[in-house]
Amino acid sequence: FTYLLPAVIFFKVGPTAGAVATTVYAIPPMVLMTTLGLQKVSPEVVEAGKMSGCSKFQMLRHVYIPSARTEILVGVNQVIMLSLAMVVLTAFVGMPGLGAKLLQMLGSFKLGRSFEVGVTIVLLAVTLDRMSKAWVVKQPEHFERGTAFWVRHKMALIGLGLVVLLTMIAREIPIFAEIGRGQDFSIGKFLDVQIKAFLDIGWVKATTGFLRAFLNVQVLIPFRNFMLSIPTPAMILLIAAFALALAGRRQAGYALIFFSLVALSGWWDRAIITLYSVTSAVILAAIIGLPVAIMASRSDRGSRWMLLVCDTFQTFPSFVYLLPAIMLFGITDIAVIFSIVIFATVPLIRYTIEGLRTVPPEMTEAADMAGATRFQKLVNVQLPLALPTMAIGFNQAIMFAFFMVIIAAFIGTQDLGQELQRTLAGTDLGKNFVLGICVSLMALTFDLTIMKWAADKKRALGLP
């Protein structure tokens, strides 16, 4: 949201503003991954290039970029997925397309059509993600000198031929050119009826009603009121103490400075509500995700399937997660928490599985030889050794939660996301910038603390 208002101010409402905001948002991962790739090029490879008499440009073209190819292509994958994630957000500033359609359908509470548009965005995301990841994995093919052009570029020529052929067919048969509104296969109205019928089933209505009443009245609202009741200096010191205990003095200093700046911004109450949403969602995500990940990690097949599910869910644009939340709980606080929980559970499961599966076999064998039960082995051996990797999952879950809590402002919240959304209706760039900085400072506090703790833990355990 913070990227949208400057784009609107400079380029007015419309596709240009959406394209500029998306471009600026997607640039950082490309810069980061390219830099990391170039820095990781082996010194021996660089030395060989220099000894061959390469100029600076030749070194870049024939040594650095080919060696950093994998990291650069991972950056391309990230750019594609972040650009797709902005599809719905840019609809707020007049960008046409599926995002605008999804907003329109959600605004009129047409859940069937919303689901249909959401699935379309998901299919696009999964396709682009799988294609770009396949590009990362695929190694360049090398041919002997003198190999014919058509042999070296066989697949490209076949593709070009198919494009020409289908273009010629499309000139004669209209349906090959475009499937118009009259020929679509929309089942939106049918889905609307089915969703409403499903939500009217007795046990579904009873379950959602119970969860809505219990979580709201007994858990979420008391927790929010408790956090709001803590005096500002006490809350800042509490967060600094958490950083000190976990990661040391430097991170505690960062926490103290960052949250003090948030308090001085004048948006402390909204910031605390944002923090309450993030904390509640991450705790619930951990309660759900950790047992699932532990069970899946017990077998190679279970791990493989669960990681595939996580990969697929991670490609979904964030706005899509609002659909099941609104369907089940309507426009309520619990819908906000539920949508964040779905989004934040994915990295928790993923990194817990990876952490448990990478525990050295000799450690588990030693536990087996010592007569440890499965539970004792999990608690005393596997989880302690997997914690540094799991910490990355917790960090990702918190970052995803901060991101999603801003997106969930569309449902109707009282946090910084709602205030950010309101700035889009005017030209209040200063307020927009301050709100964006507040969210960033809170997220950075947790990011720096958890990553420092994970690095220290890895070093203490002697893990790579």
Describe the protein's architecture and organization.
The chain is 80% helix and 0% strand. It is globular and about 75 Å long. α15 crosses α18. It contains 22 helices and no strands. The model has no long low-confidence stretch (mean pLDDT 83). The two termini are 38 Å apart. With 464 residues, it is mainly α.
Topology, element by element:
Layout: H1 4-11, H2 15-39, H3 43-51, H4 56-67, H5 69-89, H6 98-107, H7 111-137, H8 149-152, H9 154-172, H10 174-177, H11 188-199, H12 202-229, H13 232-247, H14 249-264, H15 268-296, H16 300-314, H17 322-329, H18 333-357, H19 361-369, H20 374-407, H21 416-423, H22 429-461
Strand content: under 5%
User: From N to C, what is the helix and strand string?
Assistant: HHHHHHHHHHHHHHHHHHHHHH
Q: What general form does the structure show?
A: globular
What's the main sheet like? none
Question: What is the count of DSSP helices, taking H or I runs of 4+ residues?
Answer: 22
* Helix share, percent: over 70%
Radius of gyration: 25 Å
- Low-confidence spans: pLDDT under 50, at least 5 residues? none
Tell me the structural class. mainly alpha
Label this structure with key terms.
single chain, 464 residues
Brief summary:
This protein is mainly alpha-helical and 464 residues long.
